[in-house]
Design brief:
This protein has 3 domains: 100 residues; 65 residues, no CATH class; 176 residues, Leucine-rich Repeat Variant (Alpha Horseshoe), CATH 1.25.10. It is 72% helix and 1% strand. It contains 18 helices and 2 strands. Helix 15 runs parallel beside helix 17. The N and C termini lie far apart (66 Å).
Length: 368
């Protein structure tokens, strides 16, 4: 770290230290007002504030704002930092504006061009900061201007994995605010290409987006059912994954949960091969309950998350008697377990859903 950089950071640290040592609220307000007056004078009178000074003062303003004080200046300095090509300055600018601005703020038009430039740059860090900021702030004008670029980043073959993951989550955030940005006619095919990704991190983020889309329009994304079953087959049956996606001996539980949840929006597949494979996957997942013996609590938590999602899907499908019996037997074991109360409550709730399916199932449930 350079001497100049260290000096500026010390100035910020000393300011924070002064505030923490204030004996009461009045003393804190006096110190804050003194600092605000100093910063305001510097920004107003200085012909050109250096990048390091601008970064320091913006961080002070941000800290003051987070303490609950009103900030009515310094926005343009944050905008200038955001447009900088220096990483530390750009980072502070993005941080400040992501916290200070809201979706209807009058300053938003001033940063749209910078966001667009950073999204289209070849700098991975600039792209990540832009995607984070868009997701945090949102706004109608910003979404309409930048959503097409975010979509392009998501489906482009040249986009790096970290950017694709952030793009998927950013697009989901925008979609929740403005559903009209994404039409099923266009995205039903694009989602299918995303499910062909070999990177499980991208798949996990893409499934978050797909669930959000299918929740509003299940019929529009029904074509993804076979692909989702195929991905589940890779993880559960073929055990095709790397060590990076194993959590306490549990293969990618987050992706498994999302894949199973997506399938709960649909009836059993009409295709016999796909239906047979889905039931094979569910039977395999339910039979994995025995693997919890002797494992850590973290493994049990991840395993139970997948198990209960699979049981919910079995209830939703209501199509295979063997699966239903297996689910009831497993839930009965959960209820009799004395490990945690939460598992017993969840098991009771699931049994309640099963008991409403038909009289035969209700009879089986009564035995427990």
């Amino acid at each position: 770290m350079s001497t100049a950089s260290h000096k500026q950071l010390r100035g910020l640290e000393n300011f924070i230290k002064d505030l923490r040592q204030c004996p009461n609220k009045e003393a804190e307000e006096k110190r804050v007002n003194k600092e605000l007056a100093k910063i305001r004078k510097t920004f107003k009178e200085a012909t050109g504030v250096e990048g390091y000074d601008r970064r320091k003062y913006v961080l002070k303003l941000l800290y003051i704002y987070m303490l609950g004080y009103e900030i009515d200046f310094g926005y343009m300095e944050a905008v200038n930092l955001m447009a900088s090509n220096k990483f530390q300055e750009k980072l502070v600018g993005y941080l400040a504006l992501s916290i200070l601005l809201h979706e209807n703020h009058e300053m938003l038009p001033l940063i749209v061009q910078t966001l667009q430039n950073d999204l289209q740059s070849r700098n991975e860090y600039h792209q990540c900061m832009a995607l984070n900021s868009i997701a945090n702030i949102g706004g109608k004008e910003m979404s309409e201007s930048l959503a097409p670029i975010v979509q392009k980043l998501l489906i482009s073959k040249s986009t790096k994995a970290p950017i694709k993951k952030k793009a998927a989550l950013c697009l989901l955030r925008l979609y929740r605010k403005y559903p009209e940005l994404i039409s099923s006619e266009v995205w039903s095919e694009r989602i299918l290409t995303l499910l062909d990704e070999s990177d499980y991190g991208i798949l996990t983020s893409a499934m978050s987006l797909l669930i959000g889309l299918a929740n509003d329009n299940p019929k529009g994304y029904e074509g993804a059912v076979k692909k989702v079953i195929w991905v589940l087959t890779k993880v559960v049956i073929n055990r095709d994954y790397t060590k990076d996606y194993v959590y306490y001996n549990m293969p990618n539980p987050w992706l498994q949960v999302k894949l199973l949840r997506f399938l709960s929006y649909y009836d059993p597949p009409e295709d016999r091969t796909a239906r047979s494979r889905l039931y094979e996957i569910l039977k395999k997942i339910l039979s994995n309950a025995d693997e919890a013996k002797g494992q850590s609590q973290n493994h049990k938590n991840a395993l139970n998350a997948v198990l209960f999602e699979a049981i919910d899907l079995v209830v939703q499908l209501d199509d295979d008697r063997d699966l239903i019996r297996q689910a009831i037997s497993l839930l009965g074991r959960f209820i009799s377990s004395k490990e945690t109360s939460n598992i017993r409550y969840l098991a009771l709730e699931a049994l309640g859903h099963l008991a409403t399916l038909d009289s035969e199932t209700a009879t089986l449930v009564k035995k427990f």
